[in-house]
Amino acid sequence: xxxxxxxxxxxxxxxxxxxxxxxxxxxxxxxxxxxxxxxxxxxxxxxxxxxxxxxxxxxxxxxxxxxxxxxxxxxxxxxxxxxxxxxxxxxxxxxxxxxxxxxxxxxxxxxxxxxxxxxxxxxxxxxxxxxxxxxxxxxxxxxxxxxxxxxxxxxxxxxxxxxxxxxxxxxxxxxxxxxxxxxxxxxxxxxxxxxxxxxxxxxxxxxxxxxxxxxxxxxxxxxxxxxxxxxxxxxxxxxxxxxxxxxxxxxxxxxxxxxxxxxxxxxxxxxxxxxxxxxxxxxxxxxxx
Amino acid sequence: xxxxxxxxxxxxxxxxxxxxxxxxxxxxxxxxxxxxxxxxxxxxxxxxxxxxxxxxxxxxxxxxxxxxxxxxxxxxxxxxxxxxxxxxxxxxxxxxxxxxxxxxxxxxxxxxxxxxxxxxxxxxxxxxxxxxxxxxxxxxxxxxxxxxxxxxxxxxxxxxxxxxxxxxxxxxxxxxxxxxxxxxxxxxxxxxxxxxxxxxxxxxxxxxxxxxxxxxxxxxxxxxxxxxxxxxxxxxxxxxxxxxxxxxxxxxxxxxxxxxxxxxxxxxxxxxxxxxxxxxxxxxxxxxxxxxxxxxxxxxxxxxxxxxxxxxxxxxxxxxxxxxxxxxxxxxxxxxxxxxxxxxxxxxxxxxxxxxxxxxxxxxxxxxxxxxxxxxxxxxx
Lengths: 289, 381
Hints:
heterodimer, B: Dna Ligase, domain 1, 4-stranded antiparallel sheet, 18 strands
């Protein structure tokens, strides 16, 4: 088992004719994902990597029974593309795009509360259930099938931690990058809740970073509701206040909220060991299993 | 992206928000010309992107020409928390009897803009928020509808603003929300809004930050961004299009992906070193990007050694290594020791072809960071 995506997930790629969309659609297909359609306005009738392209997501769903979408649409149009996915009643939309204006995402967030679709991202590497399906840009070959769930705000940091896990034979049930933006669709808590109810996830790794209070809230959730053991990692201990560290959401406020220390303390209080290095995170997971 | 006070006030004034009469000055002579026109008392205010300017000596009130000259002399050219002041706003003093705080910002947790009003204006609002959160009235705005005028009135009354000026304050708040939306602001703050003895309402300060991700549709504001770099290295990073933050240490850091670069910084600190910068070169590692990234870190005189950490996910390690070799060939000499660590797809193949005459290689992140820290210690001696 796994969470959110599996063998049966049928994917439409929004923006499949663009450079990124085309390349990663090919990578997804190679990994074994059921990419059943592309959706690009004005490009209906074309084919990319053997996948039929439609003008709208609606047509793609109608014709190919897609139930999930991956959004590779430039920032200026990505908010609109996400709305299209949400209004088409898909089960899942994964937005890879980085740099969507925050006020656009505020409108998306409001819409999310009115529909049943789950949004992962934006500004995320996507989601993978090793051996079954990947939606996004994660490098499939570093993952291995197993029983460790992983949720992270960052892409390459996820790969680093996965690498450490896989090297020790600790495979993953599902790994999710929830994204580095201030406003995102799926929170740590959403992912943790799903891992907690997944029979095949026996331990969870949570990689957070500076900015906001999502990690603190997740820590509270873990303390109150989770039996599955969780190991943590927090990036940005050395980040100065007021500076955006790459991710739009990774910023310690001038008043000192959103610091790494506050997140580490909250996790420790919830009984979650936090690694000083990615290697130490793998040590903790090994201890759990 | 932060706007200067004078830039924000121009936007406020154009939208009809009352602001004090003011002039921008870059020399003492210009400042004196300005006070001659404006009269006394006049505030001389440093225009730099740092908070707490007043406490740091960047804002002075002059009551005559002699004082104005003295303060302009002091403030122009002064170092304010690492930034050199090269312009001041000369502004008519406001005879106020009361100070308020009003602001609009994005509540990340709720995913909605929030209006904030407090009668405890003129002081550090973050301290008010920490010590006495009830002193700040808040009202969330549904972004799909925008602000309903009643919401501005409601939050102003809830904050306990005096009834005779409440509607004027609500009107300012309403305009600020419009500006927040129109300009893709991430934050707008007026602290303080001053109430004069004549019961007029004036925006005496102005903080306005713009969402950098929205600058593509805010061309006028994007031009202001280009003028706002206050450090040559930041300017260079802006030209190269890197996410770059300069820090005070001596270990230069280059990597891909915000989380992993932050982690590399943290590890430098963990192993006893001090990071000199955050530099994310983004996906892949084409030779040109690597050359630019090395140019960035080598241009920082504080840097004594460099750690270069790339997790080549989709981009194969051997391609990354080729890019690094090509980039290194661009340099006549490698001025500071560079440790490279490649991981991910085809990392081993990549490590094998790296030109180890010019750089050192390490297999793990932990080893690479420790070696770079050691190199920095040796160079610094």
